[in-house]
TrEMBL record:
Xref: PROSITE patterns: PROKAR_LIPOPROTEIN
Protein family according to the UniProt entry: Belongs to the SusD family.
Cellular location(s): Cell outer membrane
Keywords, ordered alphabetically: Cell outer membrane, Membrane, Signal
Protein name: RagB/SusD family nutrient uptake outer membrane protein
Gene3D superfamilies (alphabetical): 1.25.40.390
InterPro entries assigned: SusD-like_N, SusD_RagB_dom, TPR-like_helical_dom_sf
Statement: the UniProt record of this protein carries the keyword Cell division: no
GO cellular component: cell outer membrane
Principal localisation: membrane
Cross-referenced Pfam families: SusD-like_3, SusD_RagB
Top-rank taxon: Bacteria
Protein species of origin: Flavobacterium pectinovorum
Ranges for domain RagB/SusD: 347-533
Length: 533
């Protein structure tokens, strides 16, 4: 099969012949015709697909759009006020257009690139001369990857072209499927994935397993307001899966606790010094303008020198303060001059350039401890921070929300989450007050884990019935008005990022991002644009 795919949504026909993982000297030049002949080749291919869920060492492909989506919420500023912000500004400031999408363009491209690769792999592995058990494992993992890519696409862009076979040059003009059709395919892929992975042992290697499939089923069921299914799958993961809440919340993002007991799926990283396998997120969102003189050691080895994007808002900090939520606040936010939580001895007053930082805060979840920094000869591209994609606490919060809508005990689940961070249980809550508390617990628990934008778009304000984001953003949004009237000493001093963040939000269009104009042009106009753009 020799297919040259011109559309963005089909670029992977080129990718799967790349020399980085399917060309080996001992077998000569390999193509799709002679690959997938061994279990190792199928595993290598599947490993590459899984890596692309976040592409941890290629920051501009998916890591940058991930933080840009955070910047479009009430949790994060762009943050860096000293460099070009054109990749992040369109979404963060809600001035995005089909011709000015910033890095949302690469998010659209990358996921379809991976979907095409997954389709090719599934077709080829079905015919590969390997055992049925091996086929089930690698095909089950590949089905999950395809489902995850479509899950992100449908939440960012709405209905998109849907295809489950490899495309050729005659398939360039695919129409958009509806969001409902895309979700139906996601569910079908995840159910098939879980079935194929049913007997595959679950270990802590970071490989996709059946529990990841069930957990993502719980998430997409919640997002579709399929409350019974959301409860079914989240409960299944909680009661039958081999997971437990970390006793120490800070340990979830610990560089020395990869694939811990709470982790259902993480994007993997490594500090192997002769390869760039580390996470780019701690660099992209690390404190900008660190100086050795601000560390007790006065040693340049302690300096990471991040790029300063995606900085926490004081509004998010206030949400923690309103609950007296010390543990999750300090595990999520470090304010300028305060000790880095868990690293108080080596970094007792974390300071960085306030001239280049909008909020005077950094995300503690993305922080690399000083001891780890000292152990690395090479930092950039070698930072060993795994990125949680799904973890057990989310399942409790999913079950809580589903229970709220089905008459179950929602309080019990949020109190389990609160107990872990030493907060008193909530009692006597019901109706809109209870639902708003569930929403708040999701924000406090899962901040900077890739869910806030999706949540505020799909959560309904129990008073108005409208998406929560509509009450936060826009000229009269509570978040916008808070910032316009804020007296925060950091945010209101550095005005090189405007204080009216979110004022341009328009509910008639900004519940989704636009489809890239290039895709519409390539389709000859068959692909239609989202409303309002």
């Amino acid at each position: 099969m020799k297919k040259i795919i011109l559309s963005i949504i089909a670029l992977a026909a080129v990718a799967v012949s790349c020399s980085d993982f399917i060309e080996k000297d001992e077998r000569g030049k390999q193509t799709l015709e002679n690959y997938f002949q061994t279990a190792q080749e199928c595993e290598n291919y599947t490993n590459e697909l899984t890596r692309r869920l976040l592409v941890t060492n290629d920051w501009w492909v998916l890591v940058a759009p991930r933080v840009t989506n955070e910047m479009a919420t009430d949790d994060a500023w762009m943050g860096n006020t000293g460099q070009d912000n054109s990749a992040h500004r369109p979404s963060s400031q809600y001035i995005i257009s089909p011709d000015n999408m910033g890095d949302m363009n690469s998010s659209y491209t990358a996921h379809f690139y991976t979907i095409q690769s997954a389709n090719i792999g599934l077709e080829r592995m079905a015919e590969a001369p390997i055992s049925e058990s091996q086929k089930n494992q690698y095909m089950g993992e590949s089905l999950f990857v395809r489902a995850y890519c479509y899950y992100e696409l449908v939440n960012l862009f709405g209905g998109v072209p849907l295809y489950t076979t490899s495309l050729g040059t005659g398939d360039l003009k695919l129409e958009r499927s509806s969001a409902e059709e895309v979700y139906a395919q996601i569910e079908a892929d995840l159910k098939e994935s879980a079935a194929k992975l049913e007997t595959i042992p679950v270990n802590r290697s970071g490989r996709i397993n059946k529990w990841a499939a069930y957990a993502l089923l719980a998430r997409v069921s919640l997002f579709q307001e399929k409350w019974a299914e959301a409860k079914l799958y989240s409960n299944k993961v909680i009661t039958e899966g081999p997971f437990a809440l970390e006793a120490d919340f800070l340990n979830i993002w610990n560089v020395n606790n990869h694939n811990g007991v709470e982790s259902i799926l993480e994007a993997q990283s490594s500090d192997v010094q002769n390869k760039s396998l580390g996470s780019a997120l701690p660099t992209l969102a690390g404190a900008r303008g660190e100086d050795k003189k601000n560390f007790p050691s006065n040693d340049a080895a302690d300096v990471l020198d991040g790029w300063g994007w995606c900085m926490p808002t004081s509004d998010l900090e206030n949400a923690y303060l309103s609950e007296n939520d010390v543990i999750r606040r300090r595990s999520t936010i470090t304010k300028w001059g305060e000790a880095a939580y868990g690293d108080e001895v080596l970094n007792p007053t974390h300071k960085f350039s306030l001239n280049d930082n909008k909020s005077g805060r950094i995300c503690r979840k993305y922080y690399i401890p000083i001891a780890t920094r000292r152990a690395l000869d090479n930092k950039d591209g070698h930072l060993p921070l795994n990125i949680p994609l799904i973890r057990l606490a989310e399942m409790y919060l999913t079950r809580a929300e589903a229970n709220y809508h089905t008459g179950g005990d929602a309080l019990a689940d949020i109190n389990i989450i609160r107990a872990r961070v030493k907060l008193d249980p909530k009692t006597g809550l019901s109706g809109p007050t209870l639902l708003n508390q569930i929403y708040k617990e999701r924000r406090l628990e899962l901040a900077f884990e890739g869910l806030r934008l999706y949540d505020i778009r799909r959560e309904k304000d129990p008073t108005t019935g409208k998406p929560v984001i509509e009450s936060l953003m826009g000229p009269n949004g509570t978040f916008v008005q808070y910032n316009l009237n804020s007296a925060d000493p950091y945010e209101t001093t550095n005005l090189r990022e405007p204080q009216d963040k979110g004022i341009n939000f328009n509910p008639a269009k900004n519940l989704l991002w636009p489809i890239p104009q290039m895709e519409i042009d390539l389709s000859g106009g068959v692909i239609k644009q989202n409303p309002g753009y």
